[in-house]
Amino acid sequence: MILIGRSKWVPPRRWKLWSLPRPALSYVLGVEAVAVVITALAVASTVSGARTGVRPTEWVAFAVLAVASVLHLESARGIERRREMAANTSPYTNLKSLWVFAGLLLLPLSLVVALVVVSYGYSWLRVYGRTIAHRKVFSASTFILASGAAAAVLRAGGLLNEPRVPTGPWTLLVVVAAATTWWLVNFALVIGAILLSSPDATARSALGDLSDQLVVVAGLGLGVAVAGLQASYPWVVPILMVTVLALHRDLLLPQFQRAAGTDVKTGLATPAYWANAVPTELARAETMRSTVGLLMLDLDRFKEINDTYGHPAGDQALRAVGESVRAEVRQGDLVARVGGDELAVLLPGATETEVLEVAERIRDRLSTLSVSVDTSTDTTAVISGVPASFGAAVYPEVAATMDQLVLAADNALLTAKRDGRNRIVAARPNPPAVTDHTDQPVGD
């Protein structure tokens, strides 16, 4: 298990970054290189440009936004950890955009970059964990590129000097255009990294949920409000900060709901969430006269991975397994971790043929899965193949209730284990009871 916030330093040469596919690695390094160039140009413009330096009021605004960003991150530290771990092949969204876009309207670009560094540096140390530093470097780079593009829109619209808050219809339009540009650039950069890093990810899954992007839009809008108050009524900003912190849970409600039902190690659904989902799907299937498929899979000899490489390596392998399973199921299917190394897949509307097809795809993928893990001896090892056994059952063909469905799938899984592992067994309907009439008396 990764101890986020207390994990040991991982030297850059051992970052997971270097295990990315070559196109993804080139893309990530290219984005980071452009961010470095933008930073250098912004610093040069501040030091030797027409404005020659940072004004005292801008230093004050920077300090306010930096403190607010840190307090915001600290207050949401627990949920941000869970959401980061749950993120898979879709963008990981947060409200850092609030403070960064406010800074974009109040500060020179060099201080905006510094604000991004403060925010992500604090996140690296306190929120997400030091073992994923390379991901935070890329995320900070996308923020810098997005801020540079938005700053160009502001300048093109005539807002050359800070503060650049809207004071009329035209300036409002320019600020909205800058916010839209910021969002599009950041979103596009992240989507590109996801698609290149996960060749099996679909465009639909990479785009994520609309509710996640609404969080970013809300953050940008609040950023405009914070900038306006800081420029005109700075003593009102602390009140707005308290309001933002209080509204944080409501703005992230959909993500809170998902995080509450998310297993931290794998990003899959928790047993409790899954147990609530199954009867709901069975009731829906009964109403619509449909079916519900269930797959139970248990990793074969997974204990050997823990014993050989250590439990942290086992956790890394288990997360890779969860990602592989999610990549092979249909949209709308639910994958959960229901035991130590036991997973369950709920497939609403699936027939037995469809359930077995999904199981076969997962089995093939896991059999050839290659996972790079950190061992207990501070070395890196590659685990080749994490086979699993499968039990399949379909409602209402083999069961009429949740307990019967789970029992049928479990029994099929046990049969797969007994028959040699790394195989799929489908539960069969119980034969109807046959009444023996041989001993009954013959009537008159």
UniProtKB/TrEMBL annotation:
One of its GO terms (molecular function) is diguanylate cyclase activity. SUPFAM superfamilies: Nucleotide cyclase. The chain crosses the membrane at residues 24-47, 59-79, 99-125, 137-158, 170-198, 210-229. Keywords: Membrane, Transmembrane, Transmembrane helix. CDD domains: GGDEF. It holds the Pfam family GGDEF. Residues 290-429 form the GGDEF domain. It comes from the Bacteria. PROSITE patterns: GGDEF. InterPro entries: Diguanylate_Cyclase (IPR050469), GGDEF_dom (IPR000160), Nucleotide_cyclase (IPR029787), Rev_trsase/Diguanyl_cyclase (IPR043128). Gene3D superfamilies: 3.30.70.270. PANTHER family: DIGUANYLATE CYCLASE DGCM-RELATED, REGULATORY COMPONENTS OF SENSORY TRANSDUCTION SYSTEM. This is GGDEF domain-containing protein. It comes from Kribbella pittospori. The lineage of its organism: Bacteria, Bacillati, Actinomycetota, Actinomycetes, Propionibacteriales.
